[in-house]
Amino acid sequence: MTDKAWLDKLAKAKEGQYIPAPDVARDVFQIMNPSNADKQVALYVALLGKSRPLCGADAIRKLVEMNVCLKDNSLGFSNGFIKAHNRNVEVYSRAVCKSLGYGNLKTERIALSGEFHDIGKIAIPDNILNKPELLTDDERRLHIRPHPDTGAYMLSMLGKLFGVDFEDVIPNVRYHHEWRSGTGYPYGLRESDIPLGAQVISVCDVFDALTSRRPYKGPVVSEAALEIMAQEAGHFDRDLLEHAKNPLLKTFAELHQH
Ligand SMILES: [Fe+2]
Ligand SMILES: [Fe+2]
């Protein structure tokens, strides 16, 4: 899809205009896996015919799983580190929100945002995702930097497809790589311009990335991860980071006890 076509669709989606479901499905699947898009639209239509109504987040999980089944040469989300990472960020976000005293609904919406925060990475080629060396600047610019917008776009399209309201989730996904100092991406937002949910996810995202193995690096221990984050002055809100410490450490221990 060209940038212009994409922006037109986004504008339409924002205006709440009706876009026929198979068209939406085609766009979403094009992003997920261009070579299998037509096959997936056919599957999607069959799925709707058989098991309507799938609703809300369940529908999207199903779609992502479906996509993974068809990605024959990919780690995708089925067994790769991204699936574990999305789940970890969901669990960390829930724990941090609870310790901040957020209500159940707000907590669960931010946790859902955490679960889907990197959904846009499904559009990144596997050789980039699994590259054992650090990425080059060009590779980051071309493949990594667009993923928050890709994810936001996919959720907005998937929301249309299933009549699900992701209005509050989409900004958390779109802005999860913004830093309070204005040096994040893709928009360089500053301080309180970054939604609170996105800031919570950002803290949990970086903590999980530091404490996990990646193709290009080993994990650091949880306390060291928090120290590194505290030294990154300006990336995170200091109060938020302070509040997040205990729930992150406790949840880390729970996630890694087996
Ligand atoms: Fe991300
Ligand atoms: Fe992430």
Topology as a string of helices (H) and strands (E) = HHHHHHHHHHHHH
The gross shape turns out to be globular
Tally of strands: 0
CATH superfamily of the domain at 79-255: Hypothetical protein af1432
Please report the number of helical segments: 13
Average pLDDT rating: 77
- N- and C-termini, Cα separation: 43 Å
Radius of gyration: 18 Å
SSE class? mainly alpha
CATH fold name of the domain at 79-255: Hypothetical protein af1432
What is the name of the CATH class of the domain at 79-255? Mainly Alpha
Structural commentary:
With 258 residues, this protein is mainly α. Helix content is 64%, strand content 0%. It has helices at 3-14, 21-32, 37-51, 56-70, 81-99, 104-116, 126-129, 137-144, 147-162, 169-174, 196-211, 222-231, 238-255. It has 13 helices and no strands. Helix 2 (21-32) runs antiparallel to helix 9. The chain has a domain at 79-255: Hypothetical protein af1432 (Orthogonal Bundle). The model is unreliable at 48-56 and 67-79 (pLDDT under 50). Residues 117-118, 147, 176-177 line the site of one fe (ii) ion. One fe (ii) ion binds at residues 117-118, 147, 176-177.
How do the strands and helices of this protein lay out in sequence?
Elements: H1 3-14, H2 21-32, H3 37-51, H4 56-70, H5 81-99, H6 104-116, H7 126-129, H8 137-144, H9 147-162, H10 169-174, H11 196-211, H12 222-231, H13 238-255
Helix pairs in contact: 2-3, 2-9, 5-6, 5-11, 5-13, 6-11, 11-12, 11-13, 12-13
The structure holds fe (ii) ion (2 copies).
Residues 85, 117-118, 205 line the site of one fe (ii) ion (FE2).
